[in-house]
Write a structure and sequence with these properties.
GO terms for molecular function: ATP binding; ATP hydrolysis activity. The protein has 308 residues and is of the alpha/beta class. The protein is 35% helix and 28% strand. Bound molecules: adenosine-5'-triphosphate.
């Protein structure tokens, strides 16, 4: 369990992390979200012990990170932003080096390397210098070094940044397969990544926590949750009748041929009555669907409020 209490980080007069409180339990896969400069990397660096807090406390399994850093660091795997590694080493040399630093010797060291190479699928590039690898393989090498000691806590700073869709999928699958009894904290700018991989979403803005809940709760707090969106064939017709339908509270024009109909919360779904109206009016539509919620919409409103 990670307990973060009143965590503050100042750089001169600038407050990058501003009184953060957070508890993360085993089994939590936390998507750590926030705009550029929100304080995500700084927080992650403090949890991994790379950066000392200005004030506040981080406890890992009840132990203070400030008082027992070496003991605690053994429990943590960290993939820093951009996954830096020693570029002129081959993948195998680098993994031997990391395994040694982590205190493994002889047979156990070789077994750890073999396991991690299989898990992250590095077999085909083992003898290539890291600097010559594609971004996707570099990121996998970064992941391999982060998990070689089978840590209880995995901190991944933008693990899929810059990867192509196939590589993103592979890295996400890997994270999901890892995480049964572990704590995983992933910072990302990709909101869909949170619904794909995480069971908890934490959003920070200006160093402060502005949301903490499940990805579903995040979607449900969107103004578009349960809205019915209609895509018309061509430009939208006169839709004044829509506003008069029972339960409709608002019509939001998304573009020249798309509208979202927002209903009162007491209405579970507006879909049947909007469908009837579409037929009655003879409107030509391309598609009509219930929205689960727009993550970018929630993200913008939460992080703008804080910035304002
Ligand atoms: N060593 C430092 N010295 C001064 N300011 C710093 C330092 N490290 C970070 N900052 C500032 O602290 C703020 C938070 O930075 P941080 O890297 O934690 O943000 P982030 O949420 O990870 O952003 P991004 O999504 O862009 O990676 C930024 O304004 C950054 O410029």
């Amino acid at each position: 369990m990670i307990q973060i209490k009143s965590l503050i980080k100042r750089f001169g007069d600038f407050v990058a992390v501003d009184g953060l409180q957070l508890e993360v339990k085993p089994g939590d896969i936390v998507g750590f979200l926030g705009p550029n400069g929100a304080g995500k990397s700084t927080t992650m660096k403090m949890i991994t012990g790379f950066l000392p807090p200005s004030s506040g406390e981080i406890l890992i399994d009840g132990e203070s990170l400030a008082k027992a850093p070496i003991n605690i660091k053994k429990k943590i795997g960290y993939l820093p932003e951009g996954a830096p590694a020693y570029a002129d080493m081959t993948v195998l040399q680098f993994l031997h080096f990391i395994a040694q630093v982590r205190g493994f010797k002889g047979k156990e060291k070789n077994q750890r390397i073999k396991d991690v190479v299989e898990k992250v699928e590095l077999q085909q590039v083992l003898n290539r210098p890291i600097e010559n690898l594609s971004k996707g393989f570099k990121r996998r090498v970064g992941l391999a070094q982060a998990i070689i000691h089978d840590p209880l806590i995995l901190i991944l700073d933008e693990p899929t940044d810059g990867l192509d869709p196939n590589q993103k999928h592979q890295v996400r699958k890997l994270i999901q397969n890892l995480s049964k009894d572990k704590i995983v904290i992933i910072s990302t700018h990709i909101l869909e990544e949170v619904t794909a991989v995480c069971n908890r979403a934490v959003i920070i803005a200006n160093g402060k926590k502005v949301f903490d809940g499940t990805p579903k709760e995040l979607q449900q707090s969107s103004q578009f949750h349960n809205a019915v969106t209609i895509e018309f064939e061509g430009d939208k017709p006169d839709i004044s009748q829509l506003k008069l339908a029972p339960g409709v509270t608002e019509i939001i024009e998304r573009d020249s041929h798309t509208v979202s109909v927002i209903g009162h919360e007491s209405y579970e779904s507006l879909f049947p009555q909007i469908m009837d109206l579409v037929h009655l009016q003879g409107w030509h539509i391309k598609a009509m669907y219930n929205e689960v919620g727009q993550l970018d919409d929630v993200f913008r409103s939460l992080t703008k409020e804080e910035a304002a």
